[in-house]
Amino acid sequence: MKPVAPSEVEQRLERLRLACRNTGMRMTHQRLEIFREVAQSNEHPDAETIFKRVREKMPTISHDTVYRTLASLEEMGLVDRVETMAGRARYDANPDCHHHFVCTRCGSIADFYLDQAPSLPEGIENLGSAESLHVQVRGICHNCKNN
Amino acid sequence: MKPVAPSEVEQRLERLRLACRNTGMRMTHQRLEIFREVAQSNEHPDAETIFKRVREKMPTISHDTVYRTLASLEEMGLVDRVETMAGRARYDANPDCHHHFVCTRCGSIADFYLDQAPSLPEGIENLGSAESLHVQVRGICHNCKNN
DNA sequence: TCTCTAGATAGGAATTGTTCTTATATAGGA
DNA sequence: TCCTATATAAGAACAATTCCTATCTAGAGA
Ligand SMILES: [Mn+2]
Ligand SMILES: [Mn+2]
Ligand SMILES: [Zn+2]
Ligand SMILES: [Zn+2]
Description:
The structure is a homodimer. Helices cover about 40% and strands about 20% of the residues of chain A. Chain A has about 150 residues and is an alpha+beta fold. The first copy, chain A, folds into two domains: about 5-90, Arc Repressor Mutant, subunit A; about 100-145, Dna Ligase, domain 1 (2-Layer Sandwich), CATH 3.30.1490. The first copy, chain A, has a three-stranded mixed beta sheet with strand order 4-3-5. The interface of A and B includes residues 104 and 140 of A. Bound molecules: manganese (II) ion (MN) (2 copies) and zinc ion (2 copies). One zinc ion binds next to α6 of chain A.
C-alpha cells in the first residue's frame, strides 16, 4: 500500500488548520499529530494504532485524547469512520468520495471508486432523508489468498 | 415497523432445521429460541436485546450462548451482521438480498432493495475476490425528523 | 427405551474498546 | 504577559464480547 503523496498530506493538514480557524477549535500539538497520522496513511488505522504511533513523538499522549480527537475530526468532516466486520472502528482521512473493499480474513481495507453512485429506489425517501451512501465490498484480499 | 409474516417466520425456522441437519449442528432449545427472536423481528436487534427477550422464556440463558449462537447462525448464513455507526452489532434474519438505511440519530435500521446491484469498477478484482456487496445509506429517519 | 459422548450451555471471570472523572496544562485572545 | 475557556493526562469506570471450566444434553447407536 503506497503512502499518501506529501503534497496531498499537506493539503489535508491545511484543511485541518482552516477547520480549526473556522470553528474556533484550538490547534493543539496533539490534534496535529493525531490527524497527521491518519492523513499520511492509506491503511485506515484504528484508534489503538494511531495511539501507538503518536506516542512515539508524544510519549504522554492518552487514549482519551486520541478517541476524543478522532471524534472531533469526524464531526468536522476531516476523517470518516469506516465500518468493518470487527468491532474496532477504523479511520480514513481521504476526503474524496470513495468506497471500501474489506478483507474478511485479515481486516485490511482498500479504497475503490465508483464512476456513478448506485441509483436508489423510489421508496427510499419514505425511510428518511439520506445523507450519505456507503458501498462496502467484502471478500478475501490478494495478500490473504496467496498465503 | 410491521412484524414478519408468520408464514415467513416458519420458512426461516425451517431453514434453521435444514441447516442443522445438513451441518450436523445440534438443534438445541437455545438455538431455536435465539433464532426465532431474530427471525420474527424486522428491527435488527442487537445481542443484548435478543438476550433479554430469550431470557423471558429461558431464564438461565447466558450471554455467551447468545453471542456464540449468533456467530454460528451468521456462519451458516442464516443471519447477517449489519454494520452501524455505533459499536454494537445488529442482526438480521431476512435472507433476501437487500440493503440498509441507518438512522444516525436513533440507530434504527430499515431495509430497502436495489433493482440492480451497483456496477463495480474494473480494478476491483485487483483488490481481492469479492464475496458480498453492502450498500448502506445513512441519514435521519422520519421518526427522528418529526420529533 | 437406555446409554454414551461429542458437542453445547451456564455462570462468572477476563479481555478489549471506549468513555468518564478530575486535577493540571495550555492556546490564543486581551 | 496574563487570563481563562478549552484541552489534556492518567487511570478508573463502563460496555460489549469472549474465555474458562464444570455441568448438561441432543441425538446416535445398542
Ligand atoms: Mn478509505
Ligand atoms: Mn435487514
Ligand atoms: Zn486479507
Ligand atoms: Zn431515527
